[in-house]
Amino acid sequence: MQMGVWVFLMAVSGAVAQDGWVTMRPQDTGEALANPGMGWVLHYYDNVPDNYGSRLAPSDTVDDFPGLSVVYLRIPWSYIEPEEGRFNWSVLDTPAQRWVAKGKQIALRITCCESWLRWATPEWVHRAGAKGYDFEPWVGVKEGGPYWEPDYSDPIFLQKLDNFLGALAKRYDGSPEVAFIDIGSLGVWGEGHTFASTRLPIALETFQRHIDLHLKHFKRTLLVANDDFCFRGAGPLKPEDETIDYARQKGLTLRDDSILVQGGENAYFHAGMAQAFWRDRPVILECEHYGPSKERGYWQDGRKYLQAVEEYHASYASIHWWPREFLEENRALIERINRRLGYRFQLVEAEWQKRAKVGGRWEVRWRWRNAGVAPCYRGGYPAITLKDDKGGIVAVLVDEGLNVRSLPVGPPEGAEAVQSRVSFALPFQLKPGRYSVYVSVGTLTGTPEIALPLPGNDGQKRYLLGEVEVAPESP
Question: How many CB atoms lie within 10 A of CB 296?
């Protein structure tokens, strides 16, 4: 190891070598981390196709937005299947591939009713005999109204929807490119309520039928229920309502639309609902369209959005506006959210024997903390990688006794650190010498998967901690 590198580590990480041990206490760099199962969600299509990706050049993937991990494609069914059985998948695949090439994922919501488009459900479904209602937004059912909402329990509608979901799942179910899929087939904007459409109630059995239809086809991809399902159309919220309970029992997770559509104590309503979800599946937050929220005076400095991230234990938060305008006006808020959103693994302290022997064992003790608001649901294991002076890997040593999924979450700066102590058997082919010590978190086989807020990244999510001397085996 070069002396300059060691001096740098001493300065930023508090390295101490005494009594045969090296002790490191790394400091969190504060940087935004793009990690699996968490992050910012960019609304590329936001029902209206021009919002909010239309100003982006095809080569522009907003790489400057810290923590962006998912691109959200929320679009009416009629855009995907304009004629029965004939699909325009390019509507989804074209923007998706721009971000997939950068290692990001997509998320989908396909809607059946909009307050700006008459045939969100394709017109051919209506012509096939599916029942529905003309409506005027925010007024309700109106003969000759400009828009149409299907009867969500109509058998013809359900059969056509069933066929469409089968085709959608054939392409996207289980794809590593897809983070989650919303159940968007009920209610105006796919939110499960009818406040801005017909204002007709939707029966519990209808919600259950739509959930079951999605589960019939999507067996591997995470499905999402909207918090507004609990209104069952346009009725008042019933805390004991069974729709969200049913979604939970069926393995769905929860999203809340829209944080800060109002202000003050009404900035959001369903943080309590999230408590049944966040411990074993990621919760998704969508803020109100940033511009209107700001114009009505509800956004203020955005601190309520951060508060919602805390209370819901959110893994995902939305960029619900033109992304660079949102970024430029909210950099400090975004930085604060990035330090809490999802999970964030901090290596609080690491100690290792500064000298080991070929053919022997080498002991490491370390303490880890999750500084985020949510668990890492996929889990992962800390590992040490030893490298020679040319950067070659000479040993990979995984702490199989510590799954980072088990690290508890807590308030800011208040999560409990968990200690692990492991004695590694050094590989037989390891030769005597001095080696660099790198830390990572990833698979049980030592492949790094999770970015850490540490300096010294080797470009593969391994982070330089220090060095160890390996002495010849005793005669």
Answer: 13
> How many CB atoms are located within 10 Å of the residue 286 CB?
25
User: Residue 307: which H helix or E strand, with range?
Assistant: helix 303-312
What pLDDT score was predicted for residue 474?
72
Alpha-carbon span 386 to 388, nearest angstrom: 7
According to DSSP, the β-strands at 463-471 and 223-226 are unpaired
Tell me the residue type at 315: S
**Three-state SS string across 44-68, please?**
EEECEEEEECCCCCCCCCCCCCCCE
Does the pLDDT at position 155 exceed 50? yes
Residue 149, both tokens: 């909402």
Percent of the chain with pLDDT over 70: 95
Question: Does residue 178 register a pLDDT over 70?
Answer: yes
CA 211 to chain centre: 21
What pLDDT, on the 0 to 100 scale, is given for residue 18? 61
Both tokens assigned to 335: 């930085």
Please calculate the CA angle 35-38-41 and round it to the nearest 5 degrees.
Answer: 110
| DSSP letter string, 333-381 | HHHHHHTTSS--EEEEEEEEESEEETTSEEEEEEEEEE-SSS--TT--E
Whole-number pLDDT of residue 240: 52
Beta strands in 104-227 (DSSP E): 105-111, 132-136, 140-141, 147-150, 178-182, 223-226
Asked if residue 164 lies in contact with residue 214, where contact means CB atoms within 8 angstroms, the answer is no
What are the DSSP E strand ranges found in 260-358? 283-287, 314-319, 345-353, 355-357
Give CA–CA dist 173/260, Å, rounded.
Answer: 32
Name residue, tokens 């050094």: 426
Q: Give SS3 for 321.
A: coil
Look up tokens 């601190």; give the residue.
303
Which residues does 275 contact at the CB level (< 8 Å), separation at least 6? none
SS3 of residue 91 by DSSP: helix
CA atoms of 77 and 74, how far apart (whole Å) = 10
Q: Is the pLDDT of residue 414 over 60?
A: yes
Query: Is 119 in contact with 78 (CB distance < 8 Å)?
Result: yes
Mean pLDDT of the chain: 94
Side chain identity at residue 249, one-letter code: Q
Average pLDDT over residues 343-370: 96
CA torsion sign for 227, 232, 238, 239 is: negative
- Among 282, 285, 217, smallest CA distance to 252 is for 282
Instruction: pLDDT band for 14, please (50, 70, 90 cuts).
Output: low
Query: Is-contact 469 354, C-beta < 8 A?
Result: yes
How far apart CA 404 and CA 380 sit, in angstroms, is: 5
pLDDT at 11: 43
Read off the pLDDT of each residue in 253-275 and give the average, rounded to a whole number: 95
What mean pLDDT is predicted for residues 337-358? 97
Q: What is the pLDDT of residue 239?
A: 54
